[in-house]
Specification:
The structure is a single chain. By secondary structure, this protein is mainly α. It has one domain (2-10, 29-269). Helices cover 62% and strands 5% of the residues. The protein is built from 13 helices and three strands. The chain has helices at 2-13, 35-50, 59-73, 107-112, 116-132, 134-143, 145-153, 157-170, 178-194, 200-215, 221-226, 231-242, 251-269, and strands at 84-88, 95-98, 102-106. A three-stranded mixed β-sheet has the order 1-3-2. A hairpin with a 3-residue loop joins strand 2 (95-98) and strand 3. Helix 1 packs antiparallel against helix 7 and helix 10 packs antiparallel against helix 12. The longest helix is centred in the C-terminal third of the chain and has 19 residues, at 251-269. The termini are far apart. This is M48 family metallopeptidase. Keywords: Hydrolase, Metal-binding, Metalloprotease, Protease, Signal, Zinc. InterPro entries: Mito/Outer_Membr_Metalloprot (IPR051156), Peptidase_M48 (IPR001915).
């Protein structure tokens, strides 16, 4: 069935001038990869990535990020799909998403965040990339139809390993366009507020990253390569947050985040 689906994908994409409708949940550009194929591809890529990275060996930290991610996904139209959130034992300040609902958060990002709302804003942004299906859109545009069909078919394990190695090395499946990043910011902000986090956390996280980059540029290199951050993006986040309600104080959430951050810092500072 998987081979048949990928063959249909390749045939449809090769039809000149095809205007076939994409899945209704896709808020981005035209995407002819079915959701089931995208989630299947995501499982293949995640298996390869997981073989090349080291998860953070702290169940409390992982549990916190799982709960945070689940709360954000619950605000999306893909809440019925399987999602995974993995904390990596990596001091780099970064996060990335695979197709099919796989989000990876580096320990360095947790250590750098100024609070739970800032961390949640990054996770919400990556979830938004997944909901808008930006990765498969970019893959078709950057690599071509046959290349993506080969990935979906799964007949070339070397190709899957190659993509996974790039993910681990660069922390991004494909460099998203400015419009993709803007859409992920907008959607992520909606998810953030709907899940009960402060929407000001998005702009605050941007400002935190800019300030920290000036002090330790190498640790932030991967983030800024895959997440270009200009003043206009910060201003857009600030303006959008003004239209959204701020949550009441959450001392329990703040305390839980501070505990998680204390647990993460030894892994980051020792590297």
């Amino acid at each position: 069935m998987r081979r048949a689906a990928a063959s249909v994908l390749l045939a449809v994409l090769l039809v000149p001038g095809c205007t076939c409708a994409s899945d209704s949940v896709n808020r981005g550009d035209l995407n002819l990869v079915s959701l089931d194929d995208e989630w299947s591809l995501g499982r293949d890529l995640a298996a390869e990535v997981d073989a090349q990275v080291r998860p953070l060996p702290d169940p409390v930290v992982q549990g916190y990020v799982d709960r945070l991610g689940e709360a954000l996904v619950a605000q999306t139209e893909m809440a019925d799909r399987d999602w995974t959130f993995t904390v990596l034992d990596d001091p780099a300040v970064n996060a990335f998403a695979l197709p099919g609902g796989h989000v990876y958060v580096h320990a360095g990002l947790i250590a750098a965040a100024g609070g739970p709302d800032e961390l949640a804003s990054v996770v919400a942004h990556e979830v938004a990339h997944g909901v808008a299906r930006h990765s498969t859109e970019r893959m078709v545009k950057a690599q071509g139809v046959s290349w993506v069909a080969g990935l979906v078919l799964g007949d070339n394990p070397g190709l899957v390993r190659q993509v996974a190695a790039g993910l681990v090395g660069r922390g991004a499946l494909a460099r998203f366009s400015r419009s993709d990043e803007a859409e992920a910011d907008r959607l992520g902000l909606d998810y953030l507020a709907a899940a009960g986090y402060d929407p000001d956390g998005q702009a605050a996280m941007f400002e935190t990253l800019v300030a920290l980059r000036a002090r330790r540029p190498l640790r932030f290199e991967r983030w800024f390569q895959s997440h270009p951050l200009g003043e206009d993006r910060v201003e857009a986040a600030e303006a959008a947050a003004e239209a959204l309600p701020s949550p009441p104080p959450r001392p329990d959430e703040d305390a839980a985040f501070e505990d998680v951050q204390r647990r993460v810092r030894p892994f980051v500072s020792s590297r």
